[in-house]
Amino acid sequence: MTIRDALFEAKIKLDTAGIPSPWLDAELLLAHLLRQPRTYLTIYQNQPLNHVTIQQFNHLVMRRARGEPFAYLTGEKEFCGLSFAVNKHVLIPRSATEELVEAVIKEQRTTIREQGTVIRKSCTLIDVGTGSGCIAVTLALQLPSAHIIATDIAVQALAVARENAARHGVTDRIVFLQGDLLAPVLKTQTDRLIDCQTVLVANLPYVPAQTIAPNSDLSSEPRRALDGGPDGSRPYRRLFDQLRAKGDRWHPDCIAIEIENDAYGALLASAEWRSLQPGYAAERIGSTLLMRSIQQKPRFSRGSLKTENCQLITGTVPDQTLVLPTCKAQTNMSVCRRRWP
Prior knowledge:
Pfam families: Methyltransf_31, PrmC_N. With about 350 residues, the chain is of the alpha/beta class. It is about 40% helix and about 20% strand.
């Protein structure tokens, strides 16, 4: 059987199974198996395949026909221009999470640029529910001066995250902790975090439980990485409750989370949000929610101390008033990050 013959057979099987892009998927699977670019399949379409390769290819096609995500078949997924190992124990990275990472990187680089050499505290980024480690590893690469902590409740997920950290050469930059959400950090790291600038980053499950089973794309991924409870907000409400419990000793300078659709509205209506939000200025960017602390360790000027161009304004989202420090001098009403003198 030649490459061309194998592709045509695979295309028919995938098309019959209702796969949206049968020919593309067939090409990508065979190219992956042969470790060649897709152009190779066209140039050498009459080249015969050996028996072992045909068996392996048919097995991959069968799994894809059953609806298994492509990334699990190849064991790879690109994220922020980097290749990450993935398997059935971790959620497949999405483009929305790239937006979350980009927002955190922009926030940190802006802080460093505006505060300059006056920063004396170290910066710690905490990735809660790290999964494949794509967030923690990317942040470690893009923010080389930051200390990274990554948590996950699943030992199998942490194994994948450690593999990806080793793949990209940042093993020594990331501390991996096993436990429920922020619990292992609060148990072992609170004292050292008090003197750090800290950013909490999380892409927790936010898919309403009832929508997972019928969706073949989601049903192949680990349910614990998707299930956000009845309204999609439960994991974030639990995270906020953990933060509130430690609020007298430590709170993050910035919280960045990914949340969409109904889960976002449910979170804003929750008691956990109302108890935590007054200490933060919130801004939503696409599916990313940024919350900047306005509490004990102010990063923003809010008084009259050499801030004649600054004032506080309020903006609204459904059922919630957000206090946003802004600068009159900037026509785009962006957040003013001028430090206290």
